[in-house]
Amino acid sequence: MRLEYGDGIRDAITRCRVAWPLDGCCGGKIRCLTQAAAEVGRQEFREDLLFLSIGWLKPTAGCLRRMGSRLANRHGVIRDKASGMWIHRAARHTATILITVLLGGLLGATLLRFAPGFGVDEQELDTRLSGATIQALRDSHAAERNVLVFYARYLSGLLRGDLGVSRSLQRPISELLSQRIPVTLRLVAFGLLAGWLLGLALALPGAISGKPAHDILPGFLSGALLSLPSALVAVLFVLIGGPGPLAIALVIAPKVYRYSRNLLAQTSAMPHVLAARAKGLSRLRILLWHVLPIAAPQIIALAGVSVSIAFGASIPIEVICDFPGIGQLAWQAALARDMPLLVNLTVLVTVVTLVANSASDLAVSPSSGRQ
Amino acid sequence: MKTLRQFVWGILILVFAASLMAGLLAPAPYGQQFRDSTNAGPSRRFPLGTDELGRDRLSRLLYGSRVSLLLAPAAALLSTFIAALIGGLAGYLGGWWERLIMRFIDLSLSLPWLFLLLTVRALLPLNVSPVASVSITFALLGLLGWAGPARVVRSGVRSLTSSGFVLQAKACGCRGSRLLVMQVLPNLKPILQAQFWISVPVFILAEANLGLLGLGVSEPLPSWGNLLRGLENYGAVRSNPWTLAPVLLLVIVMGSLHLVFPGEDYYS
User: Fold this and answer.
1) Residue A24's Cα: distance from chain center in Å?
2) Do B212 and A111 touch (CB under 8 A)?
3) B69-108 pLDDT per residue, tens
4) Which residues in chain B have their CB less than 8 angstroms from residue A330's CB?
C-alpha cells in the first residue's frame, strides 16, 4: 500500500465517518469519500483512499463497479468476487424458476385431474359400444387417476413439446399457443413501452421542479386511471375509438407514475441531495447525477412486476378490443371450462412473469449497492 | 389535506349508506321489468332511465352498490384472516417453517392473478343461481388474495417477536399461544387493518373485471361488474350517456378509497 497517512487524508476520512455512519447508504458514503479524495487531490491517493474504504464500507459488487473499472481491474480479486456473486445469483434465480414452475405444474396437473369431466371419453356415449368395450375405455384412463402418474406423463409430454389438446377447440394446445403468443407479446411490449414512457413523463416534471403544483394533474389522472378496472379502460377505448394497445399502457402508466414519483420524492430528501442543492447545483443535474442513480434500481425492479400486470390486463383488453391473443384464449377457455388449455396458459404466463422478475432482479443487483 | 380526507370520508359514508338503504331509496325492485319503458331516458319516474329489459337503472345501481360494497369487504376480511394465519405462523415459527411458507407465498404471488382467477372460476359451475355466483365470486377473491398481505404480516410478526417487550414477556415466562395472543396479535392489529383496507379496492376492481368478462355475479342480481357489462352495447352508450353512471360511481368510490387508504396494489 503506497498510501501514507497525511493530515489531509486522515481529516477527510474522519469527516466521512462522522457524516456517514456505517448503517447509512453505501452509495452516498462512496460519493462522500470521492468528494473527500478530490479534496486531497492527487490521483494515486484518491484511488488508494477508495481502496481503503472497501474494508470500511464492505460494499457490494454494484458499489465496486461504481467506484470505477480502473480500481476494480487493479484489484482482480474484487472483480472475481463481483462476477462470482452475479453467477451465484443467476444460478439461484434459475433454480427458483425451475422449482416454482415444477410446483406450479403440479398444482395445474392437480386442478386438471380434479376438473369436472376428467377421464370421461366421448366414445363412451356411443350406444353401439358394448359394456366390455366401455369398461376397456375406462381402464385405459385408470392410470391417469393417480395425480403423480398424471403429472409425470404431463411433464414428459411437456418436454416433447406436447401440451395436450384443447377440449373446447379440439386442436393441439402448442399450435394454439404458437398462433396466439405473438399477438399478446406485441400488445404487451407496446403497452409496457408506452406505459413506462407515459408514467415517467408524468413523474419527472414534478421531480425536476420540486413544485407540488406540477403533481396535481398527473396525480389526478393516475388516481382516475387506478380507479378503473382494466376491462373498463378497454370498453372506454372502444367507445372513443382509441387504439386498443394503448389501453394496456393506461393500465401500466399510473402505477409507474405513483411508484417512481414516491421513490424520486424519497430520494430527493436524502442528505447528499440536500447537500448538492445547498451547493447550488441545478435541479436537472441533481436529478440526473444524484437522484436517478440511487432510485434507478428500485424503478427497474418495478419493470419485472409491470410485466405481470400487463399480462393480467391483456385478458380483458384482448377480449373487449378483439385481439386474438392468449388473454382472449384464456377467457374462451374459462367460458368453455377448457381446463387443459387454461392450466397451460397459466403456467406459461407464470414462467414469463418469473423470468421477467428474475431478469429485473439480476439487472438491479449489480447496481443497487445492496446485497 | 385533512379537509379533503374528511370530504372523501363523507362521500364514502354517503355511498355506503345509500347502498345499505337500497330497499328504501330504490324506486323499484332491481329485477322488476317495465315492459312498456325499455331503454327509456331519465325521467321523474326513472331518474337514470331503464335498460333494454325495462329495469330501473337507479334501483339496479343502488342494489349493485350494496353487493359490491358489502361483499368486497367480506372477501377482504377472509383474505386478511388467511394472511394473518399463514403470515403469522411463518413469522412466529421461524426457521424451516418460515422458509417453507415463504416459498409457498412466493409461488402464489408468481401466479398471474387474473389468469388464476379465471382458472379457478372455470373449475366451479358457471350456470348457478345469482346468490351462488355472488358467493363463489367473492369467496374466490378472498381465498386467492391472501398471499400479498401474508408477506406483510410475516414481516410484522418477525419485527414484533424480536422487539423488546416480547423479549421481556418471554423472560417473564410468557410462552407459546399466550405470547402470541396476548403480546403479538394485539400489536399486529394496525398491520391487519391496513391490509384489509388495501384489499377492499383491489377486490372491487377484480369483481368488476370478472363481471365485465361475464364470469362474475350472474344476472338478474346486479353488481358493479355486471352493471358495467351494459357498456358493451357501444351504440347505446354513445346515444345514452347516463348509462355511464356506474362508471362515475366506481371512479368516485375507488378514488376515495385510494385517497383514504393509499397502499400497494399486489394483484391488479
Assistant:
1) 27
2) no
3) 888 899 999 999 999 999 888 888 888 888 888 878 877 7
4) 115, 118
User: pLDDT higher for A28 or A59?
Assistant: A28
Judge: A333–B112 Cβ closer than 8 Å, yes or no.
no
**Over B23-65, what HEC string results?**
HHHCCCCCCCCCHHHCCCCCCCCCCCCECCCCCEHHHHHHHHH
- For residue A172, give the 3-state DSSP assignment: strand
Chain B residues in contact with A313 by the CB 8 A cut-off are 114, 268
Q: Which residue of A has its CA nearest to B249?
A: A227
For residue B34, the model assigns a pLDDT of: 87
Interchain CB contact of B174 with A (< 8 Å): no
| Predicted confidence (pLDDT) per residue in A120-149, tens digit | 666 666 667 777 777 776 666 665 667 677
The length of chain B, given as a count of residues:
268
Distance CA A68, CA A89 (A): 22
What CA–CA distance (Å, rounded) separates B266 from A28? 31
Give the 3-state secondary structure of residue B86: helix
B159 touches chain A (CB under 8 A): no
List phi, psi (to 5°) of B231.
-75, -15
Chain A partners of B122 at a C-beta cutoff of 8 Å?
333-335, 337-339, 342
For A240, name the nearest residue in chain B, comparing CA atoms only.
Answer: B238
Contact call for A227 and B208, based on CB within 8 A: no
Alpha-carbon distance of A251 to A308, in angstroms, equals 12
* DSSP string for residues in A141-159: TGGGGSHHHHHHHHHHHHH
- The kind and range of the H/E element at A209 are helix A173-209
User: What ipTM was estimated for this complex?
Assistant: 0.79
Q: What is the number of residues in chain A?
A: 371
Is residue B144 less than 8 Å (CB to CB) from chain A?
no
CB atoms within 10 A of CB B84: 24
Q: How many CB atoms lie within 10 A of CB A334?
A: 27
Angle ∠(B130,B136,B142) on CA atoms, nearest 5 = 135
Span A279-286, average pLDDT = 82
Q: How far is CA B14 from the centre of its chain?
A: 18
Phi-psi map region of B111: left, alpha, beta (phi>0 left; psi -120 to 50 alpha): beta
Contact across the interface for A315 and B114, Cβ inside 8 Å: yes
> Is A342 close to B119, i.e. CB distance below 8 A?
yes
No. of helices (H) and no. of strands (E), chain A: 17, 0
pLDDT digits (tens, 9 = 90+) for A61-77: 555 455 544 444 444 44
B-interface mutation test, from A235, A257, A298, A309, most B Cβ less than 10 A away = A235
Cβ <8 Å between B209 and A231: yes
Average pLDDT estimate for B37-65:
88
**A306 φ/ψ angles, rounded to the nearest 5 degrees:** -65, -25
Residues of B in contact with A231 (CB under 8 A): 208-209, 212-213, 228
